[in-house]
Automatic annotation (TrEMBL):
This is Colicin-E9. Gene3D superfamilies: Colicin/pyocin, DNase domain, Helix Hairpins. Keywords: Antibiotic, Antimicrobial, Bacteriocin, Endonuclease, Hydrolase, Nuclease, Plasmid. Belongs to the colicin/pyosin nuclease family. One of its GO terms (molecular function) is signaling receptor binding. It comes from Xenorhabdus hominickii.
Length: 641
């Protein structure tokens, strides 16, 4: 049954809704904003409704069966206004971006594209993984806590679009709420998809996934609460999650499937559309250095995850469906999250200090970017011929460039190299400056006679130089005025960053001073195990050392360090790496050997132990597998990245 009334169910077993991508028709209107595009993934260009024309979308059988919204039980304008959010059309939005939709008769309808474009998502795994190391470290440290570190797709846009993108998402949600209310529907959902291959924690075939019935993913999409910005949003989170496999059952309509994603609800109606027209996705650019924010995931039952299995007919796809809370529920979520975060931060002072340092570094980087831009502008002005003359006219006189014909006429070089003359120009103006300059020329014996008819040309030349200096002085002063408040803000941000860094160091020392038990297996190493102390992450702790120290309790990390070097000294295979008499004497006392002179920095002369996962980010203090032997110079280099 094609066309239809836009709401009446057809007689097939699929229970599909007539018209539109899953049988539900468009509204027959032209969206006035259809031509607008902000390239954010939220604008009308990416809504999947015929480039902004909401009516006449194609049905699952490929025919133009979409209803124009002119009839039916909901008929007319009311049905038309609701149609945009009756289907979660995920074809033309980036993976991970949410689309709002409301259920129709208890059924959520979605249209998906299971193909992964060659561009831009061929590096989707890199996109997910290419966040700051801090993100991964914190995620591991807080795996069982309410605080998580996530890469938000909303925040992956360039700085100038972040606020606007968030605003568009909220507008989409507000509009969906209004349209749902018109047809007496209260339940709204956010639906997102991601390529399966890029989210798995380990490489595994679909046959094996199908056999297991579930799979461990390294990331999922879910609602998170950003307590800093007071908002809830959908984000890709680094949260290993066991996701079940759901078989997408074929219906009587081509490429339309039924899938039980949410327990207790009717199966979702999923339309697969991998048409070539979706190639415009290839024009989308993915930011491979996403902004990383600090968020708290919402309640676990807030979102339903599934791997949709189309039994080989289409590529499998990960889908996430989150029920949108009411405004009152969202407010309560925010308050509860704030409370949980404060409790957690109080219990984890080192990680809390690390978060504060991270925020301070971001704040400084943001202000420093503006500062550098304005400082560069000022430097350019000061380095111009006019700027150099204003700074030191004697060494850098400003010369009026004359043609041969002009010089024949004036018979003299026209230049300003007199600071007193420049002061008159800037303080008193052009006329006093020209008068003083003429008096200076007139006081030179024979100068006027030599100039003759060239006097007018000389006067015009000095006037031009004067105008250039006045303009340059005005621009320089303006640049200095604009720079001053930014410099003050930068100094404050720099001091704040320094303060937070000192706090991290203080809390880190406390963590090092706490007693602990040595853990870890160590690494099989060769005789030259110290040859990598100035490369990559450094040299690992040998297995021989780990076996001797594992399970022993140490009063502080310093005592573990002493034990490591003591064991090196009494293990022949390892001790032969220590050549000099001074170094052999050092390790015999449980002290680190000296690094080569070129690898020493200031008072830091000996080899050091580096925590791969930094303590401030939740790295284990006493796990020898988290330690590397490095030179002072290389240690500084590692931490500067």
């Amino acid at each position: 049954m094609s066309g239809g009334d836009g709401i009446g169910h057809n007689s097939s077993s699929s229970g599909g809704i007539n018209g539109g991508p899953t049988g539900f028709g468009g509204d027959g209107r032209n969206n006035g904003n259809a031509a607008y595009s902000d390239h954010s993934g939220w604008s009308s260009e990416n809504n999947g409704w015929s480039n902004g024309n909401w009516g006449g979308s194609s049905g699952p059988d490929g025919s133009n069966s979409g209803n124009s919204g002119g009839s039916g039980r909901w008929g007319g304008k009311q049905a038309a206004n609701s149609s945009r959010y009756a289907v979660a059309d995920l074809r033309l939005v980036k993976p991970g971006y949410p689309v709002a939709a409301f259920s129709i008769g208890g059924t959520i309808n979605a249209t998906v594209c299971t193909k992964v474009p060659d561009n831009p998502f061929n590096n989707w795994g890199d996109y997910i993984d290419n966040v700051k190391p801090y993100a991964a470290h914190l995620a591991r440290a807080t795996r069982n806590t309410p605080v998580g570190k996530v890469a938000s797709l909303l925040m992956s846009l360039e700085d100038g679009r972040k606020e606007y993108a968030a605003k568009l998402q909220q507008q989409m949600l507000d509009e969906a709420r209004k349209e749902a209310a018109k047809v007496n529907v209260s339940d709204l959902f956010h639906v997102t998809t991601l390529p399966v291959a890029e989210i798995l924690a380990a490489s595994i075939s679909m046959e094996r996934i199908r056999e297991l019935g579930k799979v461990l993913t390294k990331v999922v999409t879910q609602p998170v609460v950003d307590t800093k910005n007071q908002q809830r949003q959908i984000a890709i989170t680094r949260q290993p999650t066991e996701v079940r496999v759901v078989k997408a059952e074929k219906t009587s309509k081509p490429n339309v499937y039924s899938a039980q994603v949410i327990a207790g609800m009717k199966p979702m109606q999923i339309t697969v559309d991998n048409s070539s027209s979706l190639s415009q996705l290839n024009k989308t650019q993915v930011n491979t250095a996403p902004e990383v924010g600090i968020f708290s995931p919402t309640a676990a039952d807030d979102t339903h995850h599934a791997i949709l299995d189309f039994d080989g007919k289409h590529d499998p796809i990960y889908i996430s469906v989150s029920k949108v809370p009411t405004e009152a529920e969202e407010k309560a979520q925010l308050e509860a999250t704030k409370k949980r975060e404060q409790e957690w931060l109080a219990e984890n002072p080192l990680l809390a200090a690390g978060l504060e340092l991270d925020e301070a570094q971001k704040e400084f980087a943001s202000i420093d970017s503006v500062y550098q831009e304005k400082q560069n502008r000022l430097n350019q002005l000061l380095d111009s011929p006019e700027g150099r003359t204003l700074t030191n006219p004697v060494e850098n006189p400003l010369v009026f460039q004359q043609t041969k014909e002009q010089f024949t006429f004036t018979k003299t070089e026209i230049k300003i190299s007199d600071k007193a003359l420049i002061d008159v120009l800037l303080k008193e103006g052009m006329k006093p400056y020209l008068k003083k300059n003429w008096m200076k020329i007139n006081s030179t014996p024979g100068a006027v006679a030599t100039l003759g008819a060239g006097i007018v040309g000389v006067s015009m030349g000095y006037e031009q130089l004067g105008k250039r200096l006045i303009e340059a002085d005005k621009n320089i002063n303006k640049a200095k005025q604009e720079l001053a408040p930014v410099m003050e803000d930068r100094n404050k941000a720099e001091n704040k960053k320094k303060e937070k860094k000192e706090k991290v160091e203080k809390e880190s020392k406390k963590a090092r001073d706490k007693p602990g038990i040595a853990t870890g297996d160590g690494t099989d190493v060769g005789e030259k195990w110290l040859e990598n102390v100035s490369k990559q992450l450094g040299s690992p702790i040998p297995k021989e050392i780990a076996d001797k120290l594992r399970g022993k309790k140490f009063s502080s990390f310093d005592k573990l360090r002493e034990a490591i070097w003591t064991e090196v000294g009494i293990t022949p295979k390892l001790a032969q790496n220590v050549k000099t008499k001074a170094n052999k004497k050092a390790i015999a006392k449980g002290r680190a050997p000296f690094a080569r002179t070129k690898d020493q920095v200031g008072g830091r002369k000996k080899l050091e132990l580096h925590h791969v996962d930094e303590i401030q980010h939740g790295g284990e203090v006493y796990n020898v597998d988290n330690l590397r032997v490095v030179t002072p110079k290389h240690h500084i280099k590692i931490h500067s990245k």
